[in-house]
Please model this.
Amino acid sequence: MHPPLSRRNFFGLCGLVPFAGLRPTFAANTRAPAKSVLVILEQGGVSQMDTWDPKPGAVSEHRSPYKPISTKVPGMRFTELLKETAKVADKLAVVRSMWHPKAGASGHGEGTQYMLSGAHPGSAVHMPDLGSVASHTLGTSAHFLPPYVMVPGNHEQANVTSTGFLPVGTKAFKTGGGDLSAPGWKVGALDPRADTPAERLAARQQLLAGLNARSSPGTGRTFGGMDRFYSQAFDTLTSAKVAKAFDYQGEPLTVRERYGVGHRGACYLVGRKLIEAGVRFVTVDVRWPLAKEYPGGFNMNWDHHDLMYMNGSCGTVRDKAGGEGRYGIGTWPMMGSTDRAFAALIEDLDQRGLLAETLVCFVT
Model:
């Protein structure tokens, strides 16, 4: 009989597989090879039967209109919407049986909080994001960057991330940005302020060090217990490596095109860059921005209630079950860009030697 799967066991077990969650294997005293975690959080719920879990034997009324295709793994089939991902299936572990038995997490924000923390949002103790847990227990291997970064951290993710009972220094750093592929995109929180030049910032750091020394001499404790947080902030604001880690436009054009044009490809690529820079825990959440190329697409998450097989917009008037503001699942800003970006991410990480030490989770 297997032991109960606690949050701690779950977090440790995830390091045993190269991608996406659990497999039915438990190993005691196994050292996890993963040094970093990259979570692709496609909010709203990607239709499983139209992507990872086609059911060609089902009756026509309950079968996807998209044909199942073979993958690189014999016997594993996806639908034709995942043509690129099918080529890297040998690097994936697909979990088709995740569920939760407890009601009360059916709202968008609550469901997102559940995925970010691994704990039911109605629990007696408000649990932190797993990214905050990793930040607190593992620290960072890149002192000039926060250990837990969210790209871009908009919409539900902007409001429900939480440090729980952990220190504020474990909070998710959110890049922001409605369209990361825009030529002028940059992480505004990292822009130097005109009223705080480098010399003044250095003076403030010295002042803080003096306050720390006076507050608790000989104890090794620091003023307010915020030493790690402040040290991280100073490193982030002063290191020249920070801008480079977020610089999507600095990547070769061939690499950017490999991930695909537009917001999703840029988000996934920034995620890879942050992992490569040494960030411990990165969460990429994507909702395609409103653009003139896709009129009517003002709410493009995966919350397809109706009309999901449209070749264009699902409509803009809330006169059905709530699918308005999205595009059909088979369009570029939905599965087209997702298939391209995800396959490129897995292949890119593998070619750079990062996949062997990075747990990549696609959750939705």
